[in-house]
Write a sequence for this structure.
């Protein structure tokens, strides 16, 4: 492995500071709702966005601002998605203007993001009144990536931070990220908010390539509930302060960067899936033996999305027939008579299906495996070399509770 | 309207008898688990099946038996799906043999279906030991379609029966059906078990056409949980005893038959959606103004499948943003800035979104509309003439409870 996980997140790379406060967008005063990430130097930057036709206003503004491949700050709020609002674009632009003024940078260098309820007018006053205070924290010891990670949480129950260190071009490079879930999450872009920083020197064009590679293997393989959000965004800013020779083309350095970025994204993805709305378990579907990688991806996603399987996993019920069923309707090229299925966790591994048919297994042993909080659903299609992993969670009473009356 | 709803179901048309008993496939002795439908004369017949690559053994055998376009009986059980079993085809064939012997007909004229748990060996003894008793009931007054409708229920809470009467070719014709849900239900055939009988005279070829038309507008537009079952089947048997001139081509008579058949299927579909696992409400998404019918179908299905919207409806929460979101990721050709959304029920109608943006509405009035048990989600895309309806239900604690430990 060409990287090591380290403590921290977006402020681990050189040049970055971050903060998060309660501004008043949310009524609950104990919950931070406005976050800021700032780099002392202008960064190369790129992002990927939701594929939903309904897109938030912050996404529209961020796309404009990142068109030139540069950024220097992120402003992000929770409590309101600023989506489907007649004045949404104006408000998103105002957020950029306010952040730029407070930080003394150009408004065109600000990435803006919002998450929360769709279709309610975005209140700009709380941001206008607190952005200077937020910016001033960056120069104090209170400054912290964890506060920013908290500020973007909605129904998340834990903050999500990860960072790695890698040697690229003879220099130590760091990559760190924060993200939030945890409902309305489904493959096909980015499926949530995630902000990544790095001190690697890398061109905007190559960041864009690396972001796509990392997202396809991680965030695009998560499903919490099958709903693709309107606000999803994964952005990466690179300060270049690590001093490595700038990565401007594919090759060894680019591969090392993409691998390290993917590692950060994978760790955040697993955290997001495990913290899916109401979830009690992380589910990882590991598919091998597919005719093609595309078939492996299709099968892994289909299994991880099955409501019936998700409910069975909540009940620690080894109902492998639901795995077979989900493989069958995946639309992928599969010979169902060759399929093997096993379940595994820290407790061990249990085989439950061979050649598409059930085999004898101990229900007690299966229960012991499935009672754990990280479950692998292992599918071998025995029909080729294609592999893929998808990430999800169980379906629980609490998912229904959380989403039955989210707005009030 | 060229038809009237009447009492009864599969025994309303001339020539048909039905029965259902507890045979012992299920442990619970108070629950019927084996049903029989028999016609005194050989029928023209056709069926549509699940599109899942993993298909039950009864489907394989029924396909063989219906290849010649004729059938005379249906045998169906609940409690075991006879799917993913090494000896499944043999057991399904044995079910046909047993029914044929008891009824004095050819085994090749039997439609066989099973529903229940996947991947557990099908016990044939309970059927062998009780099929004569079951057949003997057909000649007594205990004979009844309702018992048969009960025998195919799994997690269904109510029996599903419907029948209509129509004048076709100058004669009164009847069409009746029974069906069962209620989980693992998703568009793309047939999404459940449904057996329809009619005394209309109609060729096998034209039944096949009519079944496809009816299924596309009804059963293929239901989603309970996004899982397409391995056992789904919709079969139609026509005795011809109504004495109408045989329908052998398209035209007025065929259209009248297809319309009446669709009416039976639509009523059963609404009953199935309303009785979806754990459901407290029927949801009907009515889409109009789409560029094409295909776009309308895609939007209606996407909305009805959204877990987030389903949970919001359970909570009687007018979270229309989730409707917009689901329209946005439907993959259909939609101008999101033209979309209007309303909710309606017996209580009245409330507009919540115009031109893709929220409008002021009374939360109290919305609550009053949404607290009812049959909710219309009305979407006008204002962009063409395409229309479609999809059927679903809310997502509740009980869905999770039912599916968290289904096998035990």
């Amino acid at each position: 492995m060409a990287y090591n996980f380290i403590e921290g997140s977006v402020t681990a790379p050189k040049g970055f500071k971050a903060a998060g406060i309660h501004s008043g967008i949310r009524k609950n005063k104990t919950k931070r709702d406005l976050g800021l990430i700032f780099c002392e130097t202008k960064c190369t930057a790129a992002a990927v966005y939701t594929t939903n036709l309904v897109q938030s206003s912050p996404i529209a503004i961020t796309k404009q601002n990142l068109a030139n491949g540069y950024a220097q700050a992120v402003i992000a709020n929770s409590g309101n998605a600023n989506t489907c609002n007649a004045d949404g674009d104006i408000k998103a632009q105002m957020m950029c203007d306010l952040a730029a003024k407070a930080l003394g940078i150009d408004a065109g260098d600000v990435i803006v993001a919002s998450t929360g309820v769709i279709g309610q007018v975005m209140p700009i006053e709380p941001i206008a009144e607190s952005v200077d205070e937020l910016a001033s924290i960056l120069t104090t010891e209170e400054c912290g990536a964890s506060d920013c990670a908290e500020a973007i949480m909605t129904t998340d129950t834990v903050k999500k931070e990860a960072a790695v260190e890698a040697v690229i071009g003879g220099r130590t490079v760091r990559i760190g990220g924060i993200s939030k879930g945890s409902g309305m999450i489904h493959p096909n872009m980015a499926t949530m908010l995630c902000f990544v920083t790095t001190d690697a020197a890398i061109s905007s064009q190559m960041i864009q390539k690396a972001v796509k590679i990392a997202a396809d293997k991680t965030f695009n393989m998560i499903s919490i509930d099958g709903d693709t959000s309107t606000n999803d965004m994964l952005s990466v800013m690179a300060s270049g302060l690590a001093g490595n020779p700038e990565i401007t083309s594919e090759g060894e350095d680019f591969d090392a960067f993409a691998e390290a970025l993917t590692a950060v994204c994978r760790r955040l993805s697993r955290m997001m899936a495990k913290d899916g709305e109401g979830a009690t378990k992380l589910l990882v579907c590991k598919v091998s033996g597919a005719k093609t990688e595309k078939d492996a991806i299709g099968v892994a996603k289909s299994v991880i999305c099955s409501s019936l399987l998700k409910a069975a996993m909540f009940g620690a019920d080894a109902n492998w027939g639901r795995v077979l069923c989900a493989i069958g309707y995946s639309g992928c090229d599969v010979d169902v008579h060759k399929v093997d299925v096993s379940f595994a966790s820290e407790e061990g591994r249990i085989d439950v299906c061979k050649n598409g048919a059930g085999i004898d297994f101990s229900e007690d042993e299966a229960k012991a495996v499935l009672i754990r909080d990280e479950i692998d659903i292992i599918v071998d299609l025995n029909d080729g070399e294609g592999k893929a992993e998808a990430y999800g969670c169980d379906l629980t009473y609490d998912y229904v509770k959380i989403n039955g009356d989210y707005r009030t």
In short: The CA atoms of residues 256 and 402 of chain B lie 40 Å apart. The longest strand of chain B covers residues 34-49. The domain at 282-404 of chain B is CATH 3.10.20.340 (Ubiquitin-like (UB roll)). Residues 186-191 of chain B have pLDDT under 50 and may be disordered.
